[in-house]
Amino acid sequence: xxxxxxxxxxxxxxxxxxxxxxxxxxxxxxxxxxxxxxxxxxxxxxxxxxxxxxxxxxxxxxxxxxxxxxxxxxxxxxxxxxxxxxxxxxx
Length: 91
Description:
By secondary structure, the protein is mainly α. Helices cover 74% and strands 0% of the residues.
């Protein structure tokens, strides 16, 4: 992931933690090879929704050059387009 993409996530960190619906998004990210089953389990063992979102964001930031765009596409696909728009505007 490019530095500018990580910065967009960092600038919107609190907004992301408050609004992400992690379970729906994870299946999309798995189907696009951004997450593995093991990574999904790392997220699922977290206790709260906020902790799950935190873990997911930490993982996604390390998943290569296509991770940001795939995250944005997944947000749109999973009815979280308002989050995708905010991230795209922050880049």
